[in-house]
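Example 3.2
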Amino acid sequence: METDASDDEGAEDLRRRIVHGRRTGHKLRPHARNLIESLLPHLRVPMPEPHPLDPEAVPPPLDPFALFTPRPSGLWLEIGFGGGEHLAGQAAAHPELGLIGCEPFINGVAKLLIDVEARNLGNVRVHTDDARPLIEALPEGCLDRAFVLFPDPWPKTRHHKRRFIQTATLDALARALADGAELRVATDIMAYARWTLVLAMRHPDFEWLARGPADWRVPPPDWVPTRYEAKARVAGRTPVYLRFQRRPRAS
């Protein structure tokens, strides 16, 4: 089991806009390019800007509920939504909620926008950069659920510090999640599953919800499959579905 998870990335790394890997892939088709230009500006999350006279001042927190009309009854966050199948599916199933998706890969953003337009999903907003500054900008306890689905495993030891699941990011998510809120992590890489379990189970703010093997071998009842998940199964890799609950804050 990997127990040398890199906790010492530190909170400072949450303030960096670090995105490893490609931002773009194959050339977008004309309709997808049009959606990037016409629809994305209306869905993009406006990040708080530093004060022009005091760049060192902490920007005011983002009001995520104000991004949606009407105001949603709850807020979910998906980090690294890939092609957007899960995000769009959850948005369609839960029109009363606001869903924010983070994805720096522009081809994935374009796929989501096509789905948003086709389904007329008014409860989706998009952050096209590293998720960590967005999480830091969210007010405390605003999220009812967060998803990290099939993140890049960065298998080489020297690259483990690039993995999204770190103690620092769990700290940030714990601050943004409401008491009793759920963090879901899915992966088809067993080393990443072990890494996640080690970090999350020793984190004071999270409780693993599994009571038996089916709780991590079988996806939750409201699961929306993704194309990456299907490819993993074809390749012979069996995904695991890890669910953690945010413990109540001390009174």
